Amino acid sequence: MNDVGNGLWIAASASAVAALALTLIGRQQPPQRGWRLWQAALWLSTAGIVLGAALAPHPLAMAPARLALLAWPALCLVGMRRFHARVDWPGHERHDWAALGLCALLVASSDAWPADSAMASISAPAGALLMHLYAASLLVCAGSRRDARPMHLLGAIVALAAGAPMITTLPGIAATALFEAQAVTTALSSVAMAFVVTILVFDRSERHLRASRRRLRALASIDPLTQVPNRRHFESLASKALLHDPPASAVLMMFDLDHFKAINDHHGHAAGDRALRLVSRCVRDLLRVHDLPCRHGGDEFVLLLRHASVQDAMRVATRLVARVQSMAVQSALPTFSLSFGVVQVRPAEMLSQALQRADQALYEAKRQGRSRLVAAGGSGEQPGFIESRPLGLTHA
Q1: Taking a C-beta distance cutoff of 8 angstroms, is the pair 258, 337 a contact?
Q2: Which DSSP letter does residue 348 get?
């Protein structure tokens, strides 16, 4: 076996390793658009190099071998179009196939010309050059986002591979040596392509995994019905806020829907869910960015108003009641009232202690007839109710 044959077999081995690696990786990953085209590009390149190594310089072997090498930049480009379908690509996929067909005709026509003619020596390298430059230009120009950089790198690799066919225009170079130069360049480019597309797929999988984790964290921390933090997440956020804020600068407000069970019993659970969603939406609309809402359980909500006083909380409750009343009428919901328990969080007071006092204030509001706000002082063992105010909604 001569040196040319050795070079072709080494190139075929490198291309086969890249094709096999891409195939095995593809079996371990979720299906990706374009992946099969990339596999086909590498296996076609390998087949073309093997054919040339085994049968060169027989002309019947060289023609299909050159065509197999010609296909890989086109398949690489079309695969990338499908993988990055949202990128603003120049042209259309059908243009890529048309370019491949025209360049293949140009390459195949080299055997139709007299052996000593200029067209016989330049048609095959010209077809390969045009195909590579076409694919490279589209890959380099596609997209401007950060995730398009691997495509630009791949375009540069294809452009470098375009230089190999130009060697065939030099006089005095044997056909087998010319094919070896093209085969080696294609094999190296195929290895680089396999590396780039693998990075692309792994990067996309990692981004999807991070997005799934974010969704799971949101599902674990947000109440799905009302879209506000659930009890566990609220207690974590509120405890951190109380540690960070100045002492006695926050107000804890606990409220619920009066006679909520009657709404479910008389109008159905769907009406009850709509009422909860309406209250939650009104809460989100009224609160400041740094305030914390929570669905504490059932029809009970808790708000942590940071940098606020009891008087501020009373104004928030009044606005919330008015907004809920207006929205309930617009939504054709049965009328219902809200009862509130409000406490100023004391210096060094645990969140659980403040919640207990707010719950006692809410219980007192219920005892006084509902549709009221009661503010509590004192301690959890001996609460003192410092203010009671009726609110505007009628009972359900």
Answers
A1: yes
A2: T
Owner of token pair 């209250």: 279
> 312: Cβ–Cβ under 8 A, 6 or more apart, which residues?
251, 305
Domains defined along the chain, listed by start? 3-217 (1.20.1070.10), 231-390 (3.30.70.270)
The predicted-structure confidence for 273-318, as pLDDT tens digits, reads as follows 999 999 999 999 999 999 999 999 899 999 999 999 999 999 999 9
For strands 300-306 and 250-257, give the pairing. antiparallel
Rounded to whole angstroms, the Cα distance separating 155 from 141 reads 9
Q: Rounded CA gap, 90 and 282, in Å?
A: 47
Which token pair is 263?
């709404």
pLDDT interval class at 177 (50, 70, 90): low
Q: For residues 220-235, give the mean pLDDT.
A: 92
What pLDDT is attached to residue 144?
A: 66
Place of tokens 């203010």: 387
Question: Strand, helix or coil at 230?
Answer: coil
Residue pair 359/302 in contact (Cβ under 8 Å)? The answer is: no
Answer for the pair 371, 352: CB distance below 8 angstroms, yes or no.
Answer: no
- Gap between the terminal Cα atoms of the chain: 96
> In this structure, are residues 358 and 301 in contact, taking their beta carbons and an 8 Å threshold?
no
- Dig out the tokens for 381 from the structure: 């063992």
Q: Parallel, antiparallel, or unpaired for β 372-378 and 300-306?
A: unpaired
Per-residue buried b or exposed e for 365-376, using 16+ beta carbons within 10 Å of the residue's own CB: beeeebbbbbbb
Question: What sign has the CA pseudo-torsion 353, 386, 281, 300?
Answer: positive
Tokens 């204030």 locate to: 361
Query: Which residue matches tokens 């190099």?
Result: 49
- DSSP assignment of 19-67, as one string? HHHHHHHHHHS---TTHHHHHHHHHHHHHHHHHHHHHTT-HHHHHHHHH
Spatial CA neighbour of 190 closest among 53, 291, 69: 69
Distance CA(34)–CA(51), nearest Å, equals 26
Distance CA 351, CA 341 (A): 15
CB atoms within 10 A of CB 267: 15
Tell me the C-alpha distance between 396 and 394, whole Å.
Answer: 7
- CA 289, distance to chain mean position in Å, is 26
